[in-house]
Hints:
- By secondary structure, this protein is an alpha+beta fold.
- It folds into two domains: 6-164 and 324-465, FAD/NAD(P)-binding domain (3-Layer(bba) Sandwich); 169-318, Elongation Factor Tu (Ef-tu), domain 3.
- 34% of the residues lie in helices and 16% in strands.
- The strands form four sheets. Strands 6-2-1-7-17-16 form a six-stranded mixed beta sheet, with helices on one face. It has a six-stranded antiparallel beta sheet with strand order 10-11-12-13-9-14.
- It is globular and about 70 Å long.
Amino acid sequence: MSKEAIHIIGGGLAGSEAAWQAAEAGAQVVLHEMRPVRETEVHETDSLAELVCSNSFRSDDWEYNAVGLLHQEMRLCGSLIMRSADKHKLPAGGALAVDRHGFSSEVQHALEAHPNVNIVREEILKLPAADDWSNVIIATGPLTSPDLAQAIQDMTGEDELAFFDAIAPIVYKDSIDFDVAWFQSRYDKGGPGGDGADYINCPLNKEQYETLVQALVDGEKTEFKDWEKSTPYFDGCLPIEVMAERGPETLRHGPMKPVGLTNPHSDEKPYAVVQLRQDNALGSLYNMVGCQTKLKHGEQKRIFRTIPGLEGAAFARLGGLHRNTFLNSPKVLDEELRLRSAPHIRFAGQITGVEGYLESAAIGLLAGRYGANQQLSRSNTPPPLPTALGALANHITSGADSSTFQPMNINYGLLPDLQRDEFNPRDYKGKERARARKRAKSERALRALQIWLNENDSASEVAAAS
Ligand SMILES: Cc1cc2nc3c(=O)[nH]c(=O)nc-3n(C[C@H](O)[C@H](O)[C@H](O)COP(=O)(O)OP(=O)(O)OC[C@H]3O[C@@H](n4cnc5c(N)ncnc54)[C@H](O)[C@@H]3O)c2cc1C
């Protein structure tokens, strides 16, 4: 049995969880964290698992919120991040907020005390060769240091590592009004894998378009932070409000051009069209084409709900633009989070294209387990798709469209639809139906996760005993 250590680079949310999971499974771990030898633009301490901004892990409601469900699944997996968050929680209504210093110290002390973990404070500058370190997890986060980022880019290819999120809002398909909107590709073009009706189209008349453009210009925006301004900006992905500011016709000749589309609900030709493109393989989520934005979240909801067909839109995530180093994971990672071109290297955390403390730690949890199984010569089975962990990992490794890939939070839209024997919508009315559907998905997820854990953790025990 190989006892060569797993080398985890980056001791943030993901790297700390990965180290814990691997060590708990019996693997030997070396955790390389560059702070305090080298600082990032936003971390303020030398603690492992520092929370760089908010002190909230968001909703803790596992029955009706996908983030709460992820909390619960991670607890079932023996997560150090969740154990430390629970121990240092502060009153915050339905959210799980923590004392940030107590939380980080707890994580650090647990790892320092673990006999299988060795923490080294150093910056890793290049990608390790398989002959040197055969089992590597890179969890260096959205602010991966420049030399390592360059090495990753050299290995994956220029277009496969991004330095900015440019996220357009993502809408749940079932919240779109199809008495107004319709499916059609421009000029009914099929394209690769398409059927000529790949986009959802929302029509605007002249007055609605002009009102929208004005609202985009007037809407309240968030500003770039000083350290973000130094990162090179990309030209092909301008915020929608910047396009709107360039002149009233810019959007109508850009992403909102009405050509090649016929509204089946009306004889009137649309003056402009907002298109939404499928965002996940399940077809439950659609992103608003060309609508990447720095508008404040409240403004986005208010303004985008004035678009005909989107009056009742529920957003799986709102738009944003900020500095973030992340891979085109659906293209470059396999289902075990290994780099296809260098399978001795796994990635974890925000750099894999998930978004948020919890999501980053969740991918760290899986990478740590996978790395441990590799070290201990055991096979890896990713968690099932109906679980939040499985759905999130599936989204970044194959569920998302690699040509439009942008970071994603956990949400119910990533979990497969319920079958009729699992949930009958006719049993519920109005708002109760949406709540009951969430609860049924959550209950199904926890059942599926428990089965996965029973199978995998008992297989590990058998392997360890033999
Ligand atoms: C400014 C900002 C604010 C954010 N605010 C929130 C928020 O409020 N809520 C939320 O849920 N998410 C937030 N996020 C997103 C994300 O959840 C966090 O960035 C989260 O910390 C990601 O976890 P991670 O483990 O992937 O990366 P990190 O927690 O950043 O950990 C990466 C670690 O790798 C180390 N490192 C980097 N390069 C090297 C190297 N070459 N060698 C060795 N070590 C290295 C870093 O020092 C760091 O400790 C924010 C992100 C940013 C950039």
